[in-house]
Amino acid sequence: MTVSRDARAAAAVVRVNGWYTYSRSGFHFQDRCGLCFSWIPRMEPLLGVKIGCLFALLVLTLVCGLIPICFKWFQIDAATGRHRRVLSLLGCASAGVFLGAGLMHMTAEALEGIDSEIQKFKMQNRTEKEGNASDDAGSAQMEYPYGELIISLGFFFVFFLESLALQCCPGAAGESPVQEEWSGTHVLELHSHGSPHLPSKRPLRALVLLLSLSFHSVFEGLAVGLQPTVATAVQLCLAVLAHKGLVVFGVGLRLVQIGTGSRWATLSILSLALMSPMGLVLGLAVTRGDPKGGQGLAQAVLEGVAAGTFLYVTFLEILPRELAGPEAPLAKWGCVATGFAFMAFIALWA
Question: For residue 125, with 0-12 CB atoms within 10 Å meaning exposed, 13-18 middle and 19 or more buried, which class applies?
């Protein structure tokens, strides 16, 4: 039995010798009376590749995130001497990974998406009046940095939440590195003495980090699910896997270093691992449904807010904490630069 490519592409029904019927959903076997008594399902190659990407994203996130949690080697409280220095420098490298993820991936993608969607929105709502004055006003509006504004709103939103938590419940969200310096409680104690009180002071920032990464993970999976060809889906999935593996490993290491219990840390990684597959499923649903107006703009705005929250945690929590360690400044700089370089290299394909 042979079925032409045109028939397959158009999902047409082709009957061969009165026995078989082909449709987009599969092959139907019929008797001479035309009654269907069996059905052989057929999976499209693109759908199969996307399902494989779904499981790859899930497994890789779980493995990379659980490695620091399951192995005691990554726990600073149990480290001494050279082991402690290695963990501190590894934390600096993870800080560079977060910095690269925030600047080279999340912020760049958010700016591109917001600017593109705003231009589409204005093009669709352009009036028929095209005078010189209206053109100048329109061009001035187009040059306004809407993307930077939305990212800044995400930054200040998390800033407001943490300030509100400190105002209502002093000490609940933890002190900033500057506050700790003025109060005489140095961040160095985490690296040198393993103070049991300091790790429990940062639940809000850890939650913000997980939420911002969850948003970004959903959009990464959504992007994979929306790819129209097998080649583009595989290429984007590989870039997301490389990016996500490094970032999630840094998240697991961060949860261990701030003293999160193994049970809650595991649940956090599990919930984070489900975000990209969830986005991929949403992408599949969108490609098989009717596109909705404004959907791309809403996605771009959420990406911008997520990027702003991620930058807040990166610059006000992760980097100050790691750079305050007792190791050599050039060694810390080299580790941060190495982590950033990995993410910048991955951005060539992402």
Answer: exposed
